[in-house]
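Assemble and predict.
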Amino acid sequence: MGLYFLKRVALSILIVMLAVTLLFCMIHMVPGDPARILLGPRATPELIASLSAQMGLDQSLPIQIVKFFGNILRGDLGMDVITNRPVAATVFGQLPYTLWLIFTAIIFAMLIGIPLGCYSALHRNTLIDRITGVISVACITAPSFVVALYSLLIFAVTLHWFPAVGAGDKGDFWDQVSHLVLPAFAIGLSWVGYLSRLVRASMLEVMSENHIRTARAYGLSENTVVYRYALKLAVLPTVTVIGVGMGFLLSAALFTEIVFARPGIGKLIFDSITTRNYPVVMGSVLVSTILFVVSTTLSDLINAWLDPRIRASL
Amino acid sequence: MKVRPTVQTGVNQKRRQILKATGAIGVAATTGAFSEVIYAQGKKILKIRAYGDLRSLDPAFSQGVIDEEIQSCIYSKLIQYKPGREWGYDLDAAESIEQVDATHIKFKLKAGIMFTGGHGEMTAEDVKYSFERIINKDLESTNAPDWGTLREVIVDSKYEGTIVFDDAYPPAWNIAMPYIVGNIISKNAWQAAGGKVDTTTPSVSGPYTHKEWQPKQKTILARNPDWHGGDAPFDEIHIFPIDDENTAQIAFESGDIDCTRVSLGSVGNLKASPPENSTLEEYPSLFYVWVGMNVENEKMADINLRKAVQHCIDVPSIMQASYFGAASPSTGIIAPGLIGNRAKSNVPPEMNIAKAKEYLAAAGMSDGVSLTLDVLNKAANVTTAQVIQATCAEAGITLEVNLHESGAFWSLGDSSAGERYKDIQLILNRYSMAPDPSYATAWFVTSQKGIWNWERYSDPEFDRLEAAAKAETDNSKRDEMYQTMQSMMEDSGAYRFLTHEATPVIFRNTIKPAFRPDGLPLIRGFTSA
């Protein structure tokens, strides 16, 4: 397990470096002079040149990349050229909002999706199974921004049950929770469908395996067979999917953060790209890439811990 | 006035308290109380939308309207824009102010204006420091051009001073003193802070203080108990950065904010069925939208082709399709209500296909021609481009529409960013401006070619007039000069003026808002109804 862990971490570091280098090049290939965009129409050529130098844009791309990684190793993500705050402070100030949103959405999806899938599998081919199937597919196909808009119109505008915008007052836990409900629902709904279908298929497969038949033959109760033996194995693919799903949830969070005018790393990346605030773009991209890689690595490690066959495969 | 129910704070909430609060929320929801209150957490709070997040609290580095909406609440100026439908000013920190000759403005400060943080009383020395630091080249302020020909501020006494210009600079009254660079800061506080600040401020003197900035979420201002003007109307002002107008409208309808600009597309619906207890008002905007033509492009160099395009564009159709009838055709780049606005344009707003064909024939292009139109990827722009594409086709001009995201679009005409500027043929453009005509014409002089003059229009007479009008103190002469300049632009064939758009705003009837004539909120002037 220790060797597997080391190999997986080394691979993760390599992936982060490659992804960030690729993104660095892509961002610099997009047309538009960042200094001019940032300074606005009244900036003099001297000011533009000065800001370009401050951002390191007067150097060649390879040098900029090397310097970027050098600074990362020193724990320095640079300065936000708009607000003059450290990029790390800007990024880590926004990250918790996105993490809370993603975790709440995942928890919501797991709480509904896993029992639903399990129930469907145990009542295979009944009317309830079919209805659950239709609802799950409907959830999967509903784009998160459409769900976001309709949930806003229904629950915020018409019913006034939940607030429409923002993330709630700092230090007011319940206010923050009430601001989290609709965005989490918007991005978590499709995952309810995914998880329900996945768990159903997985459960059906596990339930037909020999060890389950053996457990039943020993006279164990159905609840023990399902919840103690079958579900544990059926949930394995879900762990992997949730790990990979973090990346998709990050993109869904972007739309949701825009629609709900909610702070977060997705909105930060979007705003920074449109203003060509390169230090913030790179800082946010680095952090979200690490987040994505860490979540997939964690899901791999959990899988390896649960299933020894996976450990042997790497 | 009903009091907005609030949920107690803290994670150790008792079950009974939660149930009680939930019940209260339920009652509020069913009775519609959310839409009738401006009280929250026992405080009188104004919640208003800004279209972007705070960038700087330093007037020298303020990046436009968004920062100014906040700064104007926390700092004092000699004069402030007067709320209403006509441009004018009210005295703020100045007890009196007078243009004594073309290059001198004398002012006297009110006594007893205190800076917070123990930084003492505002004096003429603070005014001198505030204005002169912005034109100091070492500071590299992007707002320095707003002060035009400012040379210095002479301190005559503790409260009195004289603002001195190298040449006459009438825009000082319109875009300098009542706007961004007119904010007066504390010399003591700024020097102690190292000469410049970012998103915090060491001292203020306006009706509100800067309490907190929650990035990407809100800026909170709190009542300044030491304000010289008495008690500010609200305990707190919460300014929410919401860039999308539809989201802002939803936030208004759900009761989260008390005032916002709404999209032009929703004006019809809001008029037909306005949200309960709210008022919709429409203001003309200062933005100007036009189709520009690159006179140095090989194809567009022919003035007859440019004039053909001018006559192909049907402005009333664009007003209907892109602005839902909520905006009017413009006559130039200077908006109504400002010096230099023209009563009518040389080319009528309606298209004239027959005339367009005549010009095409004169250009030797009777068989038709293919052109490109570069457009920023916003909904209104795309619709406008489609309308232009359709009407141009009637005359035999085939338009290919190129969509660009904002960063790429705003560097299209930049000659220092490569050769792309040469490929511009037609471009749909939209600039913002401050309430002085010089702010509109400054971008079309020869020296702006390749910077913001993307049509690459050049006329020595235009350049001469632009410089002269900026320094002209006789308003009627100034008016005439700016009108002439717009005629020259139009006659060059390089411009087809479309609209100044409009600013529809909606607010709850529990507040009494204050807007500039162009619909921008003057937040410090908001009161409860």
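Chain A touches chain B through 57 residues (CB under 8 Å).
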